[in-house]
Amino acid sequence: MLSSLRGVEDLAILLFVSAICGLESFLREVLASGCDANIVCCYGYPDYSYHPVPALSTAAGRGHVDIATILLDHGASLYGKRPEKYVGYDPQTQPLFSACQGGHIEIVKLLLDHGLDIKKAENEGKSAVIAAIKFPQNIDLLLSRGAGGHAHFYDERANPMTTAIKSGCISSIQVLLDHNVPVGPSDLFVWNENLIGESSKSKDGPVILDLLAAHGVVAEADDRDAQQSLRDTIARGGAEVTEFFLKRGFDPNLKWDGHSSYSRSYLKDALRAENEEAAEATIAVLLRYGADINNLEGYRHNFMAFYGESKFLNYYARLLLDRGANPLPESRFGLSLLDFATENNFKAFLREVLRYIDAQNLPFTDIQRNFSFVESHPEIQKNWPAMNIWESFY
Questions:
Q1: For burial by CB atoms within 10 Å, which of 113, 260, 293, 300 has the most?
Q2: Can you tell me the distance from the alpha carbon of 288 to that of 294, in angstroms, rounded to the nearest whole number?
Q3: Which domain holds residue 301?
Q4: Alpha-carbon gap, residue 167 to 134, rounded angstroms
Q5: Which alpha helices (H) appear in 168-307, and where do they start and end?
Q6: Structural domain total, the chain
Q7: How much is the pTM?
Q8: 313-316 contacts: CB < 8 A, separation 24 or more?
Q9: 269 & 336 share domain
Q10: Residue pLDDT, tens place only, 272-310
């Protein structure tokens, strides 16, 4: 059958079909027909590709140990052939990196047993450990065989420890620590190396932060980067990580003077969470640790993302007003609610806010005090169409 093929291109395609599908007998036949085990191919085009992939890398990435063994026995390069015409060559198409990314430890062992030098494979600025960062057993094997656990890899813009922390894989972090890999940021990418912040993004953030603290990376309550990490965590709705910070003395009412973007209440940051459940859980943590719900500001510049009346009502009124936020116009928060509702013609929302006010059974003096407050501020009264509704309601 193979004798009828046109030549090298057809054989190369069949070589890669064999490597992808794990067709051992067919692969032997292709190689016996004179096909070079080092020919590169990508998506069926062996002679032109900006991302050439050796057949051995294809087999390694799929965990085909028998296929990889046959290719190695037929002279396949341990490092992948680098043809000069391929200007887009990526060192991560080497067999080692393909195996590491797929978590195929048997392939990694096979390559090492055939004499692969990890340092030589990593000399293109890529890290084998980083490629295997989700697979602790592979990391352990690589480090025990000379992989660069301490190095800063220019092409990766990171080092293995930084990448492990960003991945949130506790087991991988522990393996690196067991091999005495230091806990520290990369020297290459300064603005992305807040290890506290990276750790707090993980669902296992508290465990990772405790692990780092034991090695000298501690979340300090007076550190601006750590404070920003807390704010970002709250905005993601990370209730457990939020509690980790607050347990360690972080101020639940912290505001940065002179920084308008960071002067809002953490309670309002929590409303940015991806879903209502996460927002509610995070708000509950903040209130439990002393967040002052009476110190809420107005909505402007903080909640322009709430465009729909229903969503605004669910997030804003029910999560904060139900927990004691002041709906009266004498508070900046209450004033902004009424202002926002009338400005956007959110009638149902406006009625709901007024019900919150009425449910407090305010004495007439309190109601009068709020009228007086608005009347004493002409600039508010002028731009506050809720005043007429307020008067008609009471």
A1: 293
A2: 14
A3: 296-394
A4: 7
A5: 170-178, 195-200, 205-213, 224-236, 239-247, 266-270, 276-288
A6: 3
A7: 0.76
A8: 313/346, 313/348, 313/349, 313/352, 314/276, 315/271, 315/276, 315/279, 316/271
A9: no
A10: 888 888 989 999 999 999 999 887 776 554 444 555 555
